[in-house]
Design a protein that fits this description.
The chain is mainly α and about 180 residues long. It contains nine helices and no strands.
Length: about 180
């Protein structure tokens, strides 16, 4: 039987992995569940991603682009009041795609136990820190990034609502 040319298959598998992880958590992610979700043979997932960690790395790379795109598109980094801009964009991201934010953090935190994910998580932090460093010094950029992570984790883990005014005040204190 001739092979079917399917140039989008790898991307469909990544998209399926993100949907499965978003719906069932990382515990529900396997080559088999992703193949079923993507409607591809099981061998296709293992052909493109030899290990589950390889698939998780691809999913984290794609998921982590979500916040970067929101940050870049928001204009927050060019805002005269950086604290207000960051508070606004964080709220837009958390309130706009809460399941996506939860998945991004679940993948990000999976790097604690899965060393293969650490370089992707580190790259996300470095790139976001570099974006912030365009406006503030490197130490302040790292502090802002840590504060953003902390606020996001508190909101996501408690199921609470995002308080933009609190975030603006906290960012303002860090910025000085």
């Amino acid at each position: 039987m001739a092979r079917r040319y399917d140039p989008d298959r790898r991307q469909r598998i990544i998209d399926a992995a993100i949907r499965v992880a978003g719906r069932d958590g990382l515990a529900g992610l396997s080559h088999r569940t992703v193949a079923a979700e993507a409607d591809v043979p099981l061998g296709s997932t293992t052909y493109h991603f030899a290990t589950l960690d390889d698939l998780l790395v691809a999913a984290l790379c794609q998921a982590s682009e979500g916040f970067a795109a929101v940050l870049d598109a928001s204009g927050a980094l060019a805002d005269d009041d950086l604290a207000a801009g960051l508070a606004r964009v964080l709220g837009d991201w958390l309130n706009g795609d809460r399941p996506g934010a939860e998945l991004e953090y679940e993948l990000y935190l999976a790097a604690l136990r899965r060393p293969a994910l650490r370089p992707v998580a580190a790259r996300w932090a470095e790139e976001t820190g570099a974006r912030l460093s365009a406006r503030v010094d490197a130490v302040t950029a790292r502090a802002l990034l840590a504060l953003m992570d902390g606020i996001c984790l508190q909101v996501l883990l408690t199921g609470g609502s995002y308080d933009e005014e609190y975030a603006r005040e906290a960012f303002g204190r860090v910025i000085g």
